[in-house]
Amino acid sequence: VIQTPEQQFYLAKLLGYTYEIIYKPGAQNRVADALSRAYSFVLSVPHWDFITKLKESIALDSQVQQLMAKVQQEPEVFSDFKVLDNLLYFKGKLFIPTTSSFKQLLLEEFHSSPIGGHSGVHKTYGRLKENVFWYGIKRDVTEFVKSCMTCQQIKPPNALPLGHLQPLPIPERVWEDISLDFITGLPSFQNHTVLLVVVDRLSKAAHFGMLPTHFTAVKVAELFI
């Protein structure tokens, strides 16, 4: 009896042929579907003991324990925090202590692992903030991704290719074209720690002017004139 959609599908495929169905024992049918002939192997399930180890770490962190106690005693004051199953949550995200070594583990898992795929700052941060929270998480993600050696060595540039260096045109008269720069961090002299350097590109003649440490564009313009 043809009952299932799969049987109907194969029946429609075979209707145009003349054939004879012959039963072949499985021991002789060497080209049978591998899945139907597979042995009963031991089932292997990956187990990540991150939560267990995090609980152990939090139990030894006196500052987090004090915060969890305050959250439970004054829930209206710490409305963004919740304590569930000996773990601290902030706005529904698992709270990671600032000094915890698990931050590095999470950064590697969400960026450097096959699942993370060495994504950029935006994607790595987006996946992390959906699950966990710690103070300064975006800064840590940015620093971690930018310092990833694999990304620096393998990631191709996504900007337009740079052109060749082109020489600047040679000026025809002195002081027609100048270059300007600042020398900072000098010893203080009359409350001035910065030198304004103006150089003529043709004659290489230079003028120097003193500026205070915190100078403005207006101050530079007045000195230049």
From TrEMBL:
One of its GO terms (molecular function) is nucleic acid binding. Coiled coil: none annotated. Pfam families: Integrase_H2C2. Transmembrane segments: none annotated. Gene3D superfamilies: 1.10.340.70, Ribonuclease H-like superfamily/Ribonuclease H. SUPFAM superfamilies: Ribonuclease H-like (SSF53098). Residues 100-156 form the Integrase zinc-binding domain. This is Retrotransposon protein. It comes from Trifolium medium. The lineage of its organism: Eukaryota, Viridiplantae, Streptophyta, Embryophyta, Tracheophyta.
